[in-house]
Amino acid sequence: MSDELVQIETPFTFNEKNQREFDELIERYPIKEAAMLPTLHIAQRQAGYITPAVMKYVAEQLEVTVMKVKDVVTFYPMFFEEPVGEYVIRVCHTLPCALRDCKVVLDHLKAKLETDIASETNLAKGTTADGKFTLMKVECLASCDVAPVIMINDDLYKNLTPEKVDEILETLAG
Amino acid sequence: MVEEKRILYEHLDVPDINTFDVFRQYDGYKRFEKAIAEYQPDDIAKMVMDSGLKGRGGAGFSTGLKWSFVPRDIKPCYLCCNADESEPGTFSNRYVLEKNPHLLIEGILICCYAMGIETTYVYIRGEFTLGKRMLDAAIKEAYEKGYLGKDVRGTGLNIDIYTHPGAGAYICGEETGLIESLEGKRGQPRNKPPFPAVEGVFMKPTVVQNVETLCNLPFIVGNGVEWYTKMGPTYADTRNDPPTPDPNTGTKLYCISGDVNEPGVYELELGLTCSELIEVAGGLRGEEVKAVIPGGSSAPILTHYELDTRLDFTSLTLAKSMLGSGGIIVMNETRNIVDCLLNIMKFYAHESCGQCTPCRWGTPWVRDIVQRIADGGGRPDTITRPKFGVTESGRWGDTGETEEIYEDLDLLESVANNIANVDTMTWNTICVFGIAVSWPAVSYMRKFRPEFEAAIREGKLVTLPVAEATVPPEENYAYQQRFIPKEFADL
Ligand SMILES: Cc1cc2nc3c(=O)[nH]c(=O)nc-3n(C[C@H](O)[C@H](O)[C@H](O)COP(=O)(O)O)c2cc1C
Ligand code: SF4
């Protein structure tokens, strides 16, 4: 029964490059389970988000139960269980950024992208209709000297103003 | 004005310092070579003990002492480098990782040599993608040059360093949470004891050390203990007879943000005052300092009465606050303290790992009370309760009088104190996240009570002038420790 449920989705396997990365990774730890977070990062990079099929595959690779993988995925905010946009925009809203008007940046992004802010249980709420952007609030990004900051995928953008946000969005859209 | 004293950050801005060759030109790895050529492992451990180095990650625990708890006969022993920098207001580790990763590797090598460690995991927070890339590249180079791997530089030492990415959870910065997370589980802290030094990752002895702490090691070995202890004040702890030295040695990477003109990381000798630091950071942006958070958002707040407090481990503990991670957040007269507390409580309510009931339920409850007050819905009923203050004996305690307090403020204090009691310093939780919640909640409320009261009375946020918003030290229980007879004096 449970097998059938998982089968509804396309099964997941690492592509060649990621398989090599994974093989290297697993050597580093005395127990396989310890490779959980880096493995999930690789899997998410390949699949876009953590589907049940991904969890099943990771569980097999690390020789743990699927439940254990799910347990971890639900704990960490950086793992998504729903599709997200091509660009994930993380807006810091903790005190040092708040003291430097991160709210202006956030409101501007909301208006510009015509979307709401994603919540951890509802990522679709913060994703634009064309699936290009997902807007979310995050806690301190450890860059308080250049506040307000946002992170778009892997890149940090500093000392933001609405004008700078416009420029960044234009570059990404173009 | 106090001069910057760049040691860890001295070569940070040298172009290409992240490459082996350039790092080598600036004494890179020479201190490690000195360590293996001139000293036995135990000598290094003793030097670190004598240097008085205290952990820079938050707890401020003596590094040498921590190393002495590690049993030498159980192998393997692991080193976990804590690069999970997530405490709001802290951003010094990031620059080390991004710009000078070889310095960290050298620090790790020295620690590994001293402790007989073969495997190190650097737990880097998931958002530090650039930092991880830079460190990975540096590690690769160090392997190629023979400073890592099997038989390091022909000494017979085997040392491996691996980076391990986190995934956005603040609590993985707590050392046992970090260990759980490293083992591939939810980052939920463990009960202590056993301490990680005895039973840590993979149930083996583990040294957990912050990036900045490890970066101090090359300089202690390279320049000697005497040179190192000249920096920063050493106090005499007169609670012991004869008084024992209480070192606050070395420099600190102070991260200053908020309402200052030039926010950033400033490396200074420990022990300068709060107002001196604000001056170093280009002065206040605004008219007047309203409040300063001295050690990351978990630290109790300081008022404008306390700007002469020295920013070192001992002085801040005596001021009933803490140096913590060294993240200083300055607020000027336009800031509303209720609003600031709300922001911080939202952070903690989001980050509780959920293991302990007082923390899991108490933290959102505190947030909800502050939210209610900020939204103008604070409950205007008052209750009468015993008043604390200076008693006839000249000590703090129950004065026998009573005071009127808004029900919501009493509730706020009581919920926070039931997560972790800031007066008795006892907590009902597994880790000290609990105290990191109740410390700000209670200290903001006690020290800036007029602003909380105004918000309840007026039904909306009211920003009072600094003098009116702050409760003077004589009247306030939160300043308590300042009135305990001075137990520490300058040596
Ligand atoms: C809730 C919480 C969060 C913490 N976050 C960090 C952190 O982000 N980085 C860090 O180095 N230490 C952090 N610590 C402190 C660690 O538990 C530990 O004391 C430290 O890594 C030890 O290294 P040190 O002795 O070199 O400071 C945190 C502690 C607590 C209770
Ligand atoms: S105090 Fe909070 S964060 Fe710490 S273990 Fe308990 S629930 Fe988790």
The name of the CATH topology of the largest domain in chain A is Glutaredoxin
Instruction: Write down the overall geometry of chain A.
Output: elongated
The tally of domains of chain A stands at: 2
Spell out the helices and strands of chain A N to C.
Answer: HHHHHEHHEEEH
Describe the model:
The complex is a heterodimer of chains A (174) and B (491). Chain A has 174 residues and is α+β, with helices and mostly antiparallel strands. Chain A folds into 2 domains: 74 residues, Orthogonal Bundle (Arc Repressor Mutant, subunit A), CATH 1.10.10; 87 residues, Glutaredoxin. Helix content of chain A is 45%, strand content 10%. Chain A has 8 helices and 4 strands. In chain A, strands 2-1-3-4 form a 4-stranded mixed β-sheet, covered by helices on one side. In chain A, β3 and β4 form a beta hairpin. In chain A, α2 runs antiparallel to α3 and α3 runs antiparallel to α4. Chain A is elongated and about 50 Å long. The N and C termini of chain A lie far apart (47 Å). The mean pLDDT of chain A is 92. By secondary structure, chain B is an alpha/beta fold. Chain B is built from 18 helices and 16 strands. In chain B, the strands form 5 sheets. Chain B has a 5-stranded mixed β-sheet, covered by helices on one side. In chain B, α2 packs parallel to α6. The C terminus of chain B is likely disordered. At the A-B interface, α3, α5 and α6 of A face β3, β7, β11 and α13 of B. The complex binds flavin mononucleotide and iron/sulfur cluster. The site of iron/sulfur cluster has 15 residues of chain B, from α14 and α16.
